[in-house]
Structure formats: structure tokens, C-alpha cells
Amino acid sequence: MSTKMIVSDLDGTLFNSDCEGYGVSKELISYIKKFKEKGNMFTIATGRPIETSIEVAKEVGINAPYITYNGAKIVDINGEKIYSERFLIKEILFFLREVEKFGASIILYVNGKILCFKYTQRISVYEKKEITKCEEIDEALFDTDIRVNKVLVIGDVEKYEEMWNDLDISIKDKFRYVISEDDYFEIVQSNISKGSALKVLKNHLNIENLEIIAVGNHMNDKELLEVADVGFAVNNAVGGLKDIADYTTKEEYENGVIEIIKKFM
Question: In whole angstroms, how far apart are CA 252 and each of 17, 167, 232, 236?
Fold first, then answer.
């Protein structure tokens, strides 16, 4: 008999974070508890940093380490590092300066702080959505060897994709971008994805006959669904993710996750 582990995206999957006052539903928490009581596991894979995801992870009641930064870091329920991949911000700074000229709002995650190039209206929206605070970065930091797990660029993602495609191949070989929301362009190292992190997590858990079920809503969940044994897109997911998913739920957001839990419980 296999142990089942559901790995769920957060924003747009476990809840609709575009709605004011959103939260994890009590009904979902109850179903997750029942799922775990049958000897199964539930965890999350998110683009969020630890700072804005750990309290959600605790509220959900995960019982396995979880994936953050779109696959660049795995931590336990206490935020202790299990796996991490970082890069020098200097290596991509010239691109960030260019997209900033086209209205991009840029966020870095450094030593537990959420830093932005400039405080803009989009940064204010981000703060409300993730219930956090951003500080404007000290320009002197760019002269140091600061390393980050990822960079979040908020704005006109189609424009930023065009600009990315014009970059030198040496940069595109080292880095990749993922679209996690309609206006979120996220930069990570080329070997990083939620799927690559799921492989690391599976090896770390070292559980025989572990069946992994993954669920998401956007294209940054693509590799997660591909690596899992079974991949679900919630009904509100973008068309591209539905195309590669094994199944699409009848319900949206957390009700879609509950539908999956019922199926595998």
C-alpha cells in the first residue's frame, strides 16, 4: 500500500489571494487533517518566500517540508533549510535596470528581508496580497556580493519576455524565468523549478512507495505536475497548465483541492 502525498500550490490554488480578506478555509483544513490521519502527507510548493508563506504552511497543517521561491529553497515547518540554490544579483542586475525603465517593480529577498528597487503602487498591492512589508533597497548593497534565491519582477510580462529573448545566450543558459501570475515575471537559475525541488524533496523523504499528487493553477506549476505521479490543474487554472495536467478539477481554488483530497483519501 502506498503513502500518498499531495503537493499544492498556494496563490490561485489553495485560496484566491486576489480577494480582500482571503484565507485558508476551515473546510479545507478539516479535509487535510482527515487525509493525514489516514497516514498520508500534505505539503505546499509556492513561489512565495519563507517570510510570507510559513504562517500559511502552519495554518494548513503541512506534515512534510515545503517548497518555496518557485523551487529554489526547501524548508521544514520551522523554516529550517533543507535545500537552497542562490545566485549573485550582480549577474542579472543589468537586465533588472533595463526592465525598470519600462515600469517594472522589482523585489529581492535578502537575509529575511523583502526589498524593492523603488516603492510603487504595484509594491503596495504586493504587500496587501502577501500580507507583508517591503523596504527600498540601499543602493550600496549592489556593490556587495549579495545572493538571492529568486527575483520577482512585477508588471508587463509580455514586454519583459521580449527583452529576455534578446539577452545573450550565456545569460539564458544560466537563468530562466517563470510566469507565476498574470503580472509576475520571476527569475531563477536555469536548473530550478518546483519540479526539480520536488525531486529533491522526494529523495529527502526517502519513503518507499510514495505516490505524489500535485496541483496548481499557473505555468510555474508545470514542472511540478510533470514530476508528480498525478498532476491536477484546478478549474480556474490557465489554459496552458490544463493542457499538460493529467486531470482538471470540476471545482475552483480550494474546492478543487478538496475534490482531490476526497478522490485519494
Answer: 13, 37, 12, 5
Contacts with 6 (C-beta within 8 Å, 6 or more apart), sequence order: 35, 40, 41, 42, 43, 213, 214, 215, 257, 260, 261, 264
Residue carrying the nine cell digits 496552458: 240
Give residue-wise pLDDT tens across range 115-167: 999 999 999 999 999 999 999 999 999 999 999 999 999 999 999 999 999 99
Q: List C-alpha distances in Å: 201 to 72, 99, 195.
A: 12, 34, 10
Chain CA centroid to CA 260, Å? 20
User: What is the model's pTM?
Assistant: 0.95
CA angle 15, 18, 22 (to 5 degrees): 50
As given in the structure block, the three cell numbers for residue 38 are 489516514
**Per-residue model confidence (pLDDT) at position 111:** 83
69 and 47 Cβ atoms separated by less than 8 Å:
yes
Closest by CA to 178, choosing from 138, 219, 146, 143, is 219
Instruction: Assess contact for 42 and 118: CB atoms under 8 A.
Output: no
User: In degrees, to the nearest 5, what angle opens at C-alpha 243 toward C-alphas 72 and 62?
Assistant: 40
- The pLDDT score that the predictor gives to residue 1 is 63
Distance CA 49, CA 54 (A): 8
What is the rounded CA–CA span in Å between residue 65 and residue 79?
Answer: 9
Span 22-57, pLDDT tens digits: 999 999 999 999 999 999 999 999 999 999 999 999
Contact 12/47 with Cβ under 8 angstroms?
A: no
β-bridge pairing 87-88 and 105-110: unpaired
